[in-house]
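pasting Glycerol operon regulatory protein for the record, 251 residues
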Amino acid sequence: MRSEPTDFVQSVSRALRVLEQVAQAERPLPVKVIARRCGLNLSTAYHLVRTLCYEGYLIRQVDGTYALGSRLAERFHELVGSFQRPPSAATVLRHLAAVGGHTAYLARIAGDRMVVVEVVEGPHSPWLEDLQVGLETAAHATALGKSLLTTLPRRALRRILSAQGLRRFTRDTPTEVAAVEAELRQLRPGDVVIERGQFRENVACASVVTPADDPVGWWAVGVSTRGMDLPDQLLTHLRGAAADLGRPGRT
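structre below
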């Protein structure tokens, strides 16, 4: 668990809780519901909602309920645009998805998070809602995350696993740090990391890391497939994509 900073600003935290509750709701929410879900008194909730509306992060509907505003979409596009990518990333991923028909992913470590920075969908892979651009990957349960974890010293590895938590996605998901460490001890940066059924039932994924310029450190390129079979040819294409990604001058 992360410790609360000494200069923690409660009003900022409350405003973010309001945004999270509105974002997670299936329909726009009235202020009374927002206040109850966020554990706020009604007066505070009104002040926060009005401020967020003024700044464009919420909008007030004609019936008095509140939904997300366009400013959030703008911030998301700015976030995606801020991700550093190899110059050849889009070309390499499109080629990888085309030759095998499987979805191709690019991920990196950002702070203590594993973040997906590029995705090219393929028809032979399922759509994985948690592996989309701008989202954190589950480092302990995905091939992308595990391949990146192989590049870290033990202290950094444990810090990241502690910060993200070891959520159980399937019955095969490792939920103990020791189990993840034991698996990673068998691997080295650049090995093909394979995960079967740990992130989604009846889905297999593979990933390889390739060095990148600082401050990124490493890129992970991966693929997913329906079922547990990862054909040798697909893994060959994956290795080739990782090599192309780290090759300077390719566009």
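The chain has nine helices and seven strands.
The radius of gyration is 21 Å.
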